[in-house]
Each structure stands twice: as structure tokens, then as C-alpha cells.
Amino acid sequence: MTKATARALVYLVSGVVASAAGFAFSLAALVGVGLLAVTQLGGPAFLGAARVSRTLAGIERRRAGWVLGATIPAPYLPGTAGTIRQRVTAVGTQPATWRDLAWLVLLIPLGLAGGCAALVVTAVDLGAIVAPAWAWAVPNPRAPFPMKPLMTTPSGRIVLTVLGLLLVPVVAWLLRTLAVLQARLARALLAPGTHRRLVEQAAHLAATRQRVVDAQAAELRRIERDLHDGAQARIVAAGMTLALAARKLRTGGGTGGGAEADVALARRQLDEALAELRRLVRGIHPPILTDRGLHAALAALAGDSPLTVEVRADTADRYPAAIESAAYFVVAEGLANAGKHADATTCTIDISRTVDTLRIRLADNGRGGADPGGSGLDGLRRRVEALDGVLTLTSPVGGPTILDAEFPCAS
Amino acid sequence: MRIVIAEDLLLLREGLVRLLTDTGHTVVAAVDNADSLVAAVTEQRPDLSIVDVRLPPGFRDEGLRAALRLRAADPDTRVLIVSQYVERAYAAELLADGHGGVGYLLKDRVTALDDFLDAVERVAAGGTVMDPEVVRQLFTRNSRNHGIDGLTPREREVLALMAEGLSNSAICARLVLAPVSVEKHITNILAKLDLPPATTAHRRVRAVLAYLNAPL
Q: Which of A233, A282, A292 lies at the smallest CB-CB distance from B11?
């Protein structure tokens, strides 16, 4: 309690100094930047002023945080490199810059008033408490009623002391309240605003989702490789052993007693397991996508399709794995639907890339009427949206069906 | 026959070595990456290299690319590509230079030992071997197009075997037909597909693949 009161007192009194600094800075900044604004030096002067105001605001944040018992975080967005003009815009568009300034201006009356009030109240109360020690030295026979008996008689001075002591909790409460109010106001202006918090939250969420998506794409590739190098390779190896065994049985003169037939059966079963594994791997992450990238994989898809498929793509770029995989499955599903449900005979796939978008369009000549809520399309949409992409389907009855997928894809 | 093997998985590499050694071949080098493959082939000059498509360090198509480099440097290099999966694009790249002595097989085919050994012999002898799975993919894809619809079922069978790289006599044996009727079928096929007749086995495969890979 005593500590908090002492802190409040120090905060309020030091506020006087701070308000003086704030006043000096605000005036200098106003005049300096104002005058230089018409010259080439306007930009640097503004940036310099902003730096000073940030330093002052930083001190204010520490002072207020000291009283409130909690650190106040700085609200500034990371600095950008570039020309003076770009940096001025970057600093000038941040609300934090102007909130700092607002606080420094507001501090001039607040700090002064709070500091003076704290000093006066404390001095009066302390003076009353120690009245017996000094009131005799300033006898004032003409003092008005309550003061004269209190100051001039020894019993009066004792009463003054008692009064002073009784007032101590009140004074302490007053100091703390004043300090906390001022500090809270400081926090309201100097801490990151809602806007900044939302911006940070959005950036954080985007980053974590990106990590999840990347991790998932990596996981799919890992599973594909594990199946290749693990399960499939083991089955092939077992098959080789069986093949050698079968050969030995054969050359050994056929004394195996039906073992040959068993070996042949086992080999057929292994072959079926392998075919099944290959089908599985293609469904998870087609090997060609890993090996050669999106364009080669789409060309292979186009080749496998019973439709006449034209792929129009201008580059052999590689894209992020998650995007390649999502784009591949969009085309795979689109082609399958075109063949199965739309009775299409030809399909065109266009891939185009602008600076930050990868766009894939699938257009068939079928009879349309596709259900955008169908399970296959819904799954695709979720997959595309997880990458901040957009999937649009236009499929009027009578056709044609056009499937569009757009992915944000910074180069 | 002197053979170099490039396969990164120990299990399969050892299996292949054992299998080939047991059947009377000599494995002069068994390596696990593309660079060592190039070095081994350059140094050993083997009769045949058996190469996995995916090799370290990237595990993409390093093996295939190394094989294509080797064949570009010396067209007589015989390469049998084995892979866990078949991709038509890879088959087309292998065949693109027009020389024989290449093959592309699924790894599973190894377990059909006699067929595999037969493929090894054919590639080493300068023939061309395509996995039936590649051929099947090509046929599915084009079943709606071109003149294939005009072929009789028997002719289609013959075409599929041609595409796998079998010689006339092998086709005769497989389909239990007289050499004369096989030749007749082939003449009909090439005529129906509007392809000039060709004599050697790998040129026929090229013709088949070129036709099947033609833009739609």
C-alpha cells in the first residue's frame, strides 16, 4: 500500500517534468516540421520527429506501466525500407504515430495539474502532521478562526497533527486514484489499438494456417514416398524371392508336391497388392506430381482421360506443393465429372499465372447442370479455400460447365 | 552378361543382384545414386544398366535423366528403366532418340522371372521393351480416337504385343499363331493406322508410340 502510494506520488510529480518535455517537443515539432514541410527536409524532419515522439512515448509507456504494474506493449508496425517518401507514408498512416502525439499534447495539462495537485496535497498533509515542530515559528495573530487556535496553541498543533494523520489514508487514496487514472489514459492511447490487434491476429492466423497446409502437403508427399520405398519395395522384394524359389522348385525336378502352385498363387496375390498400392498412391499424391510438377501431371491426367483434352499452359513453373496438389485434384475431379456426368467429349484446361495468382479453368462441352453442392465439388472447394483460394462453378443446364480455381501464389 | 544396377533401396538392389547372379549374369556394379551410375557405366561399359527412375538426392526422376544423358553421350548404351509406377511421358522420352536398346518396366515385373530375364536379354540385344501397363494406358486413352476402333480384336492384341516390344516370332508364340498370319495382321494394322511398314522391332514400337502419343 505504502509502496503503491509512493509510486503514485513519484509518477504524478515526474509527470510535471514529462509534461514539460512533451510541451517542448510538441512545440518544436510543430514549428520545425511545419516550416520544413515546404522544403526537401520536410520528410526527414517528420521522420526525426516521429522517432523522438516514439522515444518519449516509450518513456511514458514505462512510467504508466510502472504504476499499473503491467508492461504496456508498443503498437508500432515493423519499419519498412524504401525512399523517404515511402517511409513517411508508412509512419504517417500508422494510427500509433498520432496517438503518441495526442498523448504528449494531453500530458501538458494533465501532467502539470496532476503533479501540482499531488505536491500540494502531500505537502499540506505532511505539514499538518509535523505542525508541532514548526507552527510556533510562524505565529500569525491575525489568522482567521480555525487556523489561529490550531497554529498558535500547543494543543491546537497536536490536533493538527492528529488531523494530518487521520487524513493520510485519504491523501494516499487520492494520489493513487489520480495516478491510476492518468496512467490508464496513457495506456488507452499508447497501447496497441483494436485495429492493430486485429491486424496482428489475422496475420498470426494466416501464418499458422499456412504452416498447417504446408505440413499437410509435406505429409502427403512423405506418405507417397513411404509407400513407394517401404511397402511397395518390400512386396517387390518378397516377389523376387518367391520367383527364385519357384525357379528352384522347377529346376529341382518337380518334387515340390504342389508347392509350385502355392508359390504361383502367392506371387499373384503380391501382384494384386502392388496394383492396389499403386492405385492408393495415385489417390494420395500422384508420383508424377512429385517428380515433374503440375504441368507434367496435368498432361498425364489429360492423356489418361477418355475425353479429348487440351492443356494450355505457358510455363513449366513449380508452385508451392500444397497448391500443386490442390490444383491437380481440381482438374482430376473436373475431368472425371465431365466424362461421367456431363457426357462431354472435349475439355480445355487453361492455366495462367499473374504476379500473385494462379488461375486454373476447366471448360467442357457437356450438358451442364452440375450440382455445386455435390460431395466431390464440396471437398474440392474446402481444399481450395484452405489455401485462401476460390473455386467457382458455372454449369447451366444444357452446358457448358466451367470450373474455375484461383490460388493466391506470390512469386 | 555384364550388368550395372542403380537402385537406392538396399533390399531391392540386393534382390536384383542375387536374382541376376543366380541366373548366370555378372553384376559389375550396384550403385545407389545417379552420379555413381554415370561413373560406373563410363568405367565398366556394361552390356546393360538397370536403373530405378527415382534416385537420391532429389528422389524425383534422377535415374531417368541420368539414363537419357548416358544414351545421349553414347546411343549404344542399353538401359532398362524400372519404376514403381509407369508414366507415359517417361516412356516417350526414352523412345524419343529412335535407338533401340531401351526398356521401361514396372518393378513388379521382376517377379515374373522368365519374362523379366527375357526383357533383359531383349534390351541388351538392342530391342525395345515396354511394360504392358504403359501399353494399356495408351490404349485406354485413345480408345475413342483414331483408327484403333477399326481394328479387329485379334489385330488389337497383336498391336498391344508389338507395343510391348515383342518380335514377330515372340508374338507367334504368345498368341499361338502361324508366322504368316502375324505378318498379315501387322501389315493390316499399319495400313489401317496409316503408317508405313517398318522392319525392326524397336522401330515398330516407335511407330506405335508416336502414333499413340500424337496430339489429339
A: A233
Bridge partner residues of A352 (DSSP): A359
Phi, psi (rounded to 5 degrees) for A81: -85, 170
**What is the spatial distance between Cα B76 and Cα B24, in angstroms, rounded to a whole number?**
23
Cell representation of residue A219 = 505429409
> Across the interface, which of A229, A240, A303 has its CB nearest the CB of B110?
A240
Segment A212-235, tens digit of pLDDT:
888 888 888 888 888 888 888 888
Q: Is A196 on the interface with B (CB under 8 A)?
A: no
User: CA A314, CA A326: separation in Å to the nearest integer?
Assistant: 19
Q: CB of A182 within 8 A of CB of A149?
A: no
Beta-carbon count within 10 A of A173 CB: 13
Full DSSP string of A388-401: T-EEEEE--TT---
Beta-carbon contacts of A192 under 8 Å, excluding residues fewer than 6 positions away, are: A73, A74, A75, A96, A200
Residue B103, beta-bridge partner list: B80, B129
Structure confidence by residue, pLDDT tens digits, A336-365: 888 888 888 899 999 988 888 899 999 999
Asked if B140 lies within 8 A of A306 by C-beta distance, the reply is: yes
Contact B140 A308 (CB under 8 A): no
Evaluate whether A335 touches A310 at the Cβ level (below 8 Å).
no
Which spans in B30-130 are helix H?
A: 34-44, 62-73, 88-95, 113-124
The runs of H, that is alpha helices, within A93-193 are 95-129, 131-134, 147-152, 154-190
Quote the crossing angle between the two packed helices A42-68 and A154-190, to the nearest 10°: 130
SS3 for A342?
coil
Q: What is the ipTM of this complex?
A: 0.76
Asked whether the beta carbons of residue A305 and residue B144 sit closer than 8 angstroms, the reply is: no
Closest C-alpha to A307, from A290, A283, A331: A331
Which of A221, A222, A227, A236 to substitute to test the interface with B, most B CBs within 10 Å? Answer: A236
Instruction: Spell out, as residue ranges, where chain A has pLDDT lower than 50.
Output: none
Identify the burial level of B209 via C-beta atoms within 10 angstroms of its C-beta, where 0-12 means exposed, 13-18 middle and 19 or more buried.
buried
Select the residue of B15, B60, B141 nearest A240 (Cβ to Cβ). Answer: B15
